[in-house]
Amino acid sequence: MFDNIRGIITFEAVAPEPEAFVNMLRESPVSVSDIRLESGKIYGEVYRADFDEVKRTAERLGAQICVHSKKGGVFTVRKYRRRTGMLIGLVLAFAMVVYLSNVVMIVEVYGNETLTDKQVISLLRDQGIRIGAFIPSVDLREAERRIVSSSDDIAWVGLRSKGCKIQAEISEIGEFPNIVPTSVPCNIVSSRDAQIVEIKNVHMGMLVRMLHDGVKKGDLLISGTVDDGKGGVYFAHSMGEVIGRYTEKAVFRQAFEDERFDYGEKTVRKKLCFFGLEIPLYIGKNNFGNYEYDEETRYAELWGIKFPVGIMTAEYKTYDIVPVSYSPEQAKAILEDKISLYEHNFFDGEDITVIDKEVFFSEDSGEAKAVVIYTLESDIGVTREIMAKQPS
Fold first, then answer.
1. What is the distance between the alpha carbons of residues 334 and 328, in angstroms, rounded to a whole number?
2. Cα–Cα dist 375/195, whole Å
């Protein structure tokens, strides 16, 4: 490999005394290899830098010498040395590769469930982490700390840089049920005041309440302290479902004098995103007053790799806040819509069955009110650990 970098010349010579010429080459300080005599001509290989010394040796003996062939990278470079455009292109290509390897081209988000990818990416953008950002200028550890401290929904975030890719792993703050491990003895108690309408799937523990019994919140339903029938007891992890029927009240209000959003036409603006720069593709300013905003950016993509060049489409939906008056009939219709939305959000898809509901409408000088009494059925049992004293 080093020989190819230095360059090798194969020469061809005709000498009056071939043997004398060959002997002088072998005794000279230059490195000549593969010397051979073919059809009265002398051939050999020498480094490019030593060829002038071989020519001087040939002149002293009256020999004629010429270049038979050349090989090596140095000759390839010399061949294109006058093509400055190609040289500049190679330099620019190398500089581009170095630059792109240190620029954020892909942002990946993992672990988020409640938060959307857009919300997480917006938090990252606030810390300077965006498509086109220069990675060495971003302090990932400091960005992690600031994201956690600025968001009430994120418990932990891990940021990693892999080449031109930034990976963000999110752990959200959530409300987790107090679940007692199955290896721990526990009772099942009532979570609310209810009447037992069904008992099913009692796998472990001793049933304390019977069908149609009324219970209050905290009453024991299935005991984890079980009589073994021989005068002793043992502790179990109670498992079972106790379906209770209970009532819940929900109150909804609607003022007769209210405000609503009066939406206007939607306006779309486009920008060219080029390595973090946003170049407007429109003329004028965005003087919209009150508006709802949404944006989407589509980056150029090749073989699954996104490049920091793309088009951002911004959508502005203007609105005015206008006063509105409702008649009692209109207010009642709005209340009915609120009730339907409430039931969809809290009862649909849940293990809760609506048995009955009573709606009581009323109104005064300022608002209409709806009081809804729901009769519901669901599993009312919750586990509570048994704090048993261990034998000494």
1. 10
2. 11
